Amino acid sequence: MPREGYQEKLDALREDVLYMSEVVLERLRMGLDALETKDEDLAWEVIEGDDEVNQLYLDLEQDCIDLLALQQPVASDLRFIAASFKIITDLERIADLATNLGEYTHEAERDLYPDVDIQEIGTLVIEMVEAAMDAYDDEDPDACLAIAEQDDTIDERCESASGTIVRDLIEREVDDETGEEEIEQLMADVSRLLLTVRDLERVGDHAVNIAARTLYMVENSDELIY
What we know:
- The protein has a single domain, classed as Up-down Bundle (Methane Monooxygenase Hydroxylase, Chain G, domain 1).
- The two termini are 36 Å apart.
- Helix 1 runs parallel beside helix 4, helix 2 packs antiparallel against helix 4 and helix 4 runs antiparallel to helix 7.
- Helix content is 84%, strand content 0%.
C-alpha cells in the first residue's frame, strides 16, 4: 500500500477511536441518568446498546490488525496502533460498567444515602474520560499526567462514599421486630450502592489507562503504565 494510503488509514483509526469514545460516554451518561431518575426504559436502552459498542470494538480491533499487516510501521506508528488497541479495550470496559448502571437501575427502588452524591462522582469520571480522549487526539503528554493526578481525587471521593455507606450500615439499629425481608432489602440496597461507587471508580481507572497509553504513544514513556 502506498504511504499516503497508509497514513489515511492511520488517520481514520484515530477518528474511529474518538467516535467510539463518544458512543461510550453517551452510554455512561444515560446509565447515570437512568439510575438517578429510576427510568427503566432508559436503563434497558443502555443495556441493549452494549452490542453496538462490542461491534465497534471488534471492528476497530480488526482495523488495528490490518494496519500492522499492511506494511511494517515505523516506531511511532507502531506505538500509535498499539496504544489505540489498548484504548479501545478500556473504552469497551467502560461501556460494560455503564451497562452495570442500567442493571442497577432495575434494582434501585429507593435511595438510602442522600449524602452519597453518585451523580457528582459520575460527572467527575466522565470529565476524566473526556480529557483522556482529548489528550489522545491532541497528543498532549502534560494532559496525560494531569489526568493521572486527578484520579487521586476520584479515589478519595469513592473511599469517602463507601465509608459513609458502611458506617451507616454498622450504626443502623436492627431489632427483633425488624423483618427478614426488610433486612434483605437493606443489604441489597447497600450492596448495589457500593457496587455503583466501585464501578465509577473503575471508570476513572480506565481514564488513567487511556492517558497512560497516550503518553506511551507520544513520548515512548511507560511512566503511567501499571
